[in-house]
Structure formats: structure tokens, C-alpha cells
Design goal:
By secondary structure, the chain is an alpha/beta fold. The protein has one domain: HUPs (Rossmann fold). 36% of the residues lie in helices and 17% in strands. The protein has a 6-stranded parallel beta sheet with strand order 3-2-1-4-5-6. Strand 1, helix 1 and strand 2 (33-38) form a beta-alpha-beta unit. Helix 2 runs antiparallel to helix 8 (182-190). The radius of gyration is 16 Å and the shape is globular. The structure holds adenosine-5'-triphosphate and nicotinate mononucleotide. Nicotinate mononucleotide (NCN) binds at residues 8-10, 39, 42-45, 83-86, 110, 117-118. InterPro entries: Cyt_trans-like (IPR004821), NadD/NMNAT (IPR005248), Rossmann-like_a/b/a_fold (IPR014729). Keywords: ATP-binding, NAD, Nucleotide-binding, Nucleotidyltransferase, Pyridine nucleotide biosynthesis, Transferase. It catalyses: nicotinate beta-D-ribonucleotide + ATP + H(+) = deamido-NAD(+) + diphosphate.
Length: 196
């Protein structure tokens, strides 16, 4: 049985925080692999300054290429939008009926809005969630604080990096290069992304 952590995200663009999280999960948990699932359209996000799926995928591919246990996934590209995670999970269990044990990975900010996700109870009935610490506003709902399926990742480096910050500061002409895997910076710079 291969244990796979599904790390869903918009990755607009993938940043060093995402990569550190994915790597931390495979190195310090019993997961065999982490799949970075690039979401075409997150239910809670607008399309403003959202790069094309294929470009976001390409940056995740290049960022994870040197890491054997980290894989990009295009599984949501042909699913209906906005992409509800419960729908993707149902599709994955049909596509991989045997040999895979899936769980979810998310940042703490996402756990704070998890009670608003479509059929979140169904997700929790069937999957465990690894929650990576992140400084963010809001509170974790009481029901998730000591839930048997929700595991907070301890002893992990907390990173105040976000794709929003990177897009914004890059547009203002600031140097945000150290916050991105080098391949991502190169691709983004060559393609002139997020400049206007
Ligand atoms: N610095 C971080 N620390 C912990 N979790 C993070 C961090 N950055 C992103 N995540 C988590 O990674 C997943 C995908 O994040 P996403 O692609 O939305 O990145 P983001 O930086 O939050 O983007 P944006 O600023 O555009 O909202 C989410 O579960 C999010 O909580
Ligand atoms: O299924 C839902 O209702 C749902 C609501 C909000 C977010 N998600 C998923 O969570 C992932 C991270 O979301 P975001 O908005 O932080 O990029 C992304 O893959 C979304 O599809 C899913």
C-alpha cells in the first residue's frame, strides 16, 4: 500500500514554502509520496491574476523534479469547476481503487475555513488530514481541535510566505527571488508573469 499525501493548491505560483511543506511531510511522516494537485479554480478564489493551469503545472513540475517523492498532479484539470475537493477525492478513488492510501495535506489557514468546504464531513469520514502550521487570522472550529482524523504537524518551520505576497511585490518591482525555487523564478521571469 502506497501512502500518498494529497497537497491541493492553486500554486499561483508554487513558492519555497510549498516545497518545504511537501518535503517536510515525506521526510517526517509515514507518507511515501506527496502529490501536488494543481487546482484550476479554487471555490473560494477569484480568477484575478490566475495563471493558466498549464503554466502553474509547469512550475510545480520544475520545482519538484529533483525530489523523487514529490509529484505534480493534473488530476483536476478535466474535472468540473470550481474544483470541490470531495469531487476530486471520489474521482481518485475510482481511478486508483487498489494499492493507494490517500490523505490530505493543508495549511492551518485552510483548516480555519474547512467547515465551509463542500461535504467536509464526508471528507473527514474517509480521509485523514495533516495540517501544517501557518500564521493566519481566524480560529479553528472547535470540532476540529481534537479530531481523531486531523493531525497537526509538530516541530515544523513556520513560514510567512504566500503567493499573494510574491505576486504583489514582484509587480512593484521588488526582488522576491529567494522565496521561489530557482527554476520557478527563471520560468516566471522569462515568461514575464505577474508583471501587470
Ligand atoms: N507559508 C505557508 N505555510 C503553511 N501552509 C501554506 C503556506 N503557503 C501555502 N500553504 C498551504 O498550501 C496550500 C496551497 O496554498 P495556495 O496555493 O493557496 O498558496 P498561498 O500562498 O496561500 O496562495 P495565495 O496567497 O495566492 O492565497 C494551502 O493548504 C495553504 O494553506
Ligand atoms: O472543496 C471545497 O469546498 C474547497 C474549498 C476551498 C478550497 N478547496 C481546495 O483547497 C485547496 C487550497 O485552496 P486555496 O484556495 O488556498 O488555493 C485548493 O485545491 C482548493 O480546491 C476546496
Amino acid at each position: 500500500m502506497k501512502k500518498v499525501g494529497l497537497y491541493f493548491g492553486t500554486f499561483n505560483p508554487i513558492h519555497s514554502g510549498h516545497l518545504i511543506i511537501g518535503n517536510h511531510m515525506v521526510e517526517f511522516s509515514d507518507l511515501d509520496e506527496v502529490w501536488f494537485v494543481i487546482t484550476p479554480q479554487s471555490p473560494f478564489k477569484t480568477k484575478k491574476s490566475l495563471l493558466d493551469n498549464q503554466h502553474r503545472y509547469q512550475m510545480v513540475l520544475e520545482a519538484t523534479e529533483a525530489y523523487d517523492k514529490l509529484k505534480p498532479s493534473r488530476i483536476e484539470f478535466n474535472l468540473p469547476q470550481p474544483n470541490y475537493t470531495v469531487t476530486t477525492l471520489a474521482y481518485l478513488s475510482e481511478k486508483y481503487p487498489n494499492g493507494y492510501d490517500f490523505s490530505l495535506i493543508m495549511g492551518e489557514d485552510n483548516l480555519k475555513s474547512f467547515h465551509k468546504w463542500k461535504n467536509y464531513e464526508v471528507i473527514l469520514e474517509n480521509y485523514s488530514i495533516h495540517v501544517y502550521p501557518r500564521i493566519s487570522d481566524g480560529k479553528i472550529a472547535h470540532q476540529f481541535l481534537s479530531h481523531p482524523k486531523i493531525f497537526r504537524v509538530d516541530d515544523a518551520p513556520i513560514m510567512e510566505i504566500s503567493s499573494t505576497f510574491i505576486r504583489k511585490k514582484h509587480k512593484e518591482g521588488k526582488n522576491i527571488k529567494p522565496m521561489l525555487p530557482p527554476e520557478v523564478w527563471k520560468y516566471m521571469d522569462e515568461m514575464n508573469f505577474y508583471r501587470n
